[in-house]
Write a structure and sequence with these properties.
Helices cover 65% and strands 9% of the residues. It has helices spanning 3-13, 15-39, 54-82, 84-92, 97-138, 149-172, 179-183, 197-215, 222-253, 256-259, 264-277, 279-307, 309-312, 328-342, 370-380, 399-405, 446-450, 484-494, 508-547, 549-561, 566-606, 612-642, and strands spanning 48-49, 52-53, 317-322, 347-357, 364-369, 391-394, 410-414, 419-426, 441-444, 465-472, 503-507. A nine-stranded mixed sheet has the order 7-8-6-9-5-4-10-3-11. A two-stranded antiparallel ribbon has the order 1-2. α2 packs across α5 (97-138), α5 runs antiparallel to α6 and α12 packs antiparallel against α22. It is elongated.
């Protein structure tokens, strides 16, 4: 039998040993390939699949590549550790270390090639179903299955090079071990009981500071905190698992009334050993899990925004321009004609909004006429506004502002025309999107509005008034193609440093289509990346447990001979596995919770959106998955140690 045949038979005759490493590699290739099939789809033209930008897909693909390499490297390391005894026997029988390195390299290439072939085969078989899901999400007419060489070549090149490089690194840069250590199945390295109380306290301080800063996040300090917070969290988490956890365990062991109670000593002693020797692994699991939670939580936040979009944007089309806007007549006629051609029903309201100076604040205030507002409210089916001369009403700019303004009473004078106004109520519903009207906008009676003859004091530097054209369209999603040339002019102007157009146009249906496309993109990216992250987080722990299974079996055999009952063994297994699963995930959950509190503050500040319900649902789902995964591993672990 040749050396190559020995490596080949060694893989296929002992495939159970190689199964965990194979499945980890297979899933990575599988996810990468189906994503590559989407990225290279021939329907992509000029960087778009439908309306989804390809740049986001490329970025997600890079994340998957980098993380997959790390994932395979860790799987490879755990795989080699589980075969320590086998390597010791081969060395003891006379195999040279150079030959052992060659054997590991050949076996890795065989497993890698097999996982690449199976990943691509199953990936291509699953791609049709995946495209059906994508087509529904992106609301595309069709997304046919295709066959081109690019996804296949890319997947083979990325992962074959990964297996070659990782196998070389794993073999040549692993620490030298004596045969006696390998024969004893080098599972438990020398336990390092050293930890620093200073670093333990520093970890708590860093995490507490990061959590407090996340609660203070707003759109002013967001760009500073988005760099500072991950740094504090990363350092704090690393020190937490390397020092703080050991400090806490030692404190528990010092409480003799608890430590010596029943079988607590066995559980705590085992946890002391596990936590001290796997701190770095728990740090990696925590950060990977937090990344997965953030992906899923961001999807929930985007889902909340899309579901509340119609409430935040009650109007289908809005055209706003200066009084002397030369394009006004042409643009409005064009919009009306397009609506008529599409056969869409709409209600058209024209506003003349005047600017005045409030004596109460000495700031600019936008003044709306009562009859104009009532015309729009009639279209909405909302209650009408009834104001007497001298009375005014706040126009809300967000749901939150309705509560704030309802408690205010303002006695002011519109200084340019000396018109006294008392404002003691706010309209109870959103009338305009927050981007259209000023936070200082009020409604006054027609009698008072007629008296506003003198222009705003800031004129001519500031426009004294503007015209607002509101199109209330029940089916505003169907109006997304209306006014596109005007919309494009506005968007091009925004790309400049200074906005100089005498008009502004907003199409809620068109904006929503872009929002929905971005949400669809993040859904595709987030679910795939989160799936890989969650699998990796669980696999890191699984590989560590799988590596030590035989040693754990021998340990529990000794306990059974000492008289430990099966029910007590189940309790010991639960106590042993519980921290390994739920400590990293619990810390990751806390990190993610404060991250979403910061996001909630930011969204409240910018768009008045609440994501609490979505985040609670997402976290509940993740906790359920982890509990199911824990009991599956616990069941297999107990079955193994009792066999």
């Amino acid at each position: 039998m040749t050396f190559h045949q020995f490596a080949y038979l060694n893989v296929f005759r002992n495939f159970r040993i190689y199964a965990a490493f194979f499945m980890a590699s297979f899933f990575s290739v599988f996810v990468f390939f189906i994503y590559s099939m989407l990225m290279f789809h021939p329907e992509i033209e000029n960087g778009y699949l439908g309306k989804v930008p390809i740049g986001g897909m490329v970025f997600a693909e890079m994340i998957l590549v980098l993380f997959s390499w790390f994932f395979i490297f860790y799987s490879m390391k755990a795989f080699l550790e589980s075969r320590a005894k086998e390597f010791a026997i081969l060395l003891h029988l006379g195999m040279e270390k150079r030959q052992l390195s060659k054997l590991i390299f050949l076996e890795t290439i065989i497993i890698g090639s097999l996982s690449i072939a199976c990943g691509i085969l199953f990936g291509y078989a699953f791609t049709k179903f995946f495209f059906m899901i994508v087509r529904e999400i992106l609301m595309l007419e069709e997304l046919p299955l295709y066959f081109q060489w690019e996804p296949f070549i890319l997947t083979i090149a990325v992962y074959f090079s990964a297996f070659v490089i990782i196998s070389i690194i794993s073999v040549n840069f692993s620490p030298e071990r004596k045969i006696i250590d390998l024969l004893r199945w080098y599972q438990y390295p020398h336990m390092n009981g050293r930890f620093s109380k200073k670093r333990a306290v520093l970890s708590i301080i860093l995490l507490v500071v990061a959590y407090l800063l996340s609660l203070l996040t707003n759109r002013v300090n967001f760009y500073l905190f988005v760099v500072l917070l991950p740094l504090l969290i990363t350092i704090g988490t690393y020190l937490f698992f390397t020092d703080t956890v050991q400090w806490i365990v030692e404190a528990i062991k010092s409480r003799k009334n608890f430590y010596w109670k029943k079988s607590s000593m066995l559980s705590i002693a085992e946890q002391t050993f596990i936590l001290k020797n796997n701190g770095k692994m728990y740090f990696v699991v925590t950060m990977v899990s937090a990344a997965a939670f953030l992906c899923i939580g961001l999807l929930a936040a985007l889902s909340s925004y899309t579901s509340q979009y119609d409430k935040l944007n009650p109007l289908g089309l809005i055209y706003k321009g200066h009084i002397d806007n030369p394009y006004e007549k042409e643009h409005i006629s064009s919009i009306v004609n397009e609506l008529e051609e599409k056969g869409l029903s709409y209600h058209f309201t024209r506003f003349e909004v005047k600017k005045q100076t409030s004596s109460y604040t000495n700031y600019e205030v936008e003044v709306f006429r009562e009859s104009d507002i009532n015309s729009l409210l009639f279209s909405y089916g909302y209650p009408m506004v009834q104001l007497d001369s001298g009375e005014g009403m706040f126009i809300p700019y967000s749901e939150e502002s309705i509560k704030k303004l309802s408690k205010r009473t303002v006695h002011t004078v519109l200084k340019e025309n000396n018109v006294p106004i008392t404002i003691d109520e706010v309209y109870p519903k959103l009338i305009f999107p927050s981007s259209i009207v000023s936070p200082n906008a009020i409604i006054i009676s027609d009698e008072d509005f007629v008296q506003l003859k003198n222009p705003y004091s800031g004129y001519p530097e500031v426009e004294p008034a503007y015209h607002l054209f509101a199109f209330d369209i029940p089916q505003w999603l169907e109006a997304q193609d209306v006014g596109v040339p005007i919309y494009q002019q506005v968007q091009k102007e925004y790309e400049k440093n200074q906005y100089e157009l005498p008009f502004y146009f907003e199409n809620a249906g068109l904006n929503y289509s872009y929002v929905l496309s971005m949400y669809s993109l993040f859904t595709l990216v987030g679910l795939l990346v989160a799936a890989v992250f969650l699998l990796a987080a669980g696999s890191f722990i699984y590989f560590k447990i799988h590596t030590n299974l035989d040693a754990e079996k021998r340990k529990f055999d000794v306990l059974k001979r000492m008289g430990i009952a099966d029910s007590e063994i189940k309790g010991l297994v639960t106590n042993q596995l519980f921290p390994q699963f739920f400590l990293p995930w619990g810390v990751a959950m806390v990190h993610s919770l404060f991250a979403f509190l910061a996001l909630q503050n930011l969204l409240k500040d910018i768009a008045n959106i609440s994501i609490v319900k979505e985040i609670v649902f997402a976290f509940s789902f993740l906790i359920l998955i982890q509990i199911i995964y824990f009991y599956l591993i616990r069941w297999r672990f107990i079955a193994h140690v009792k066999n």
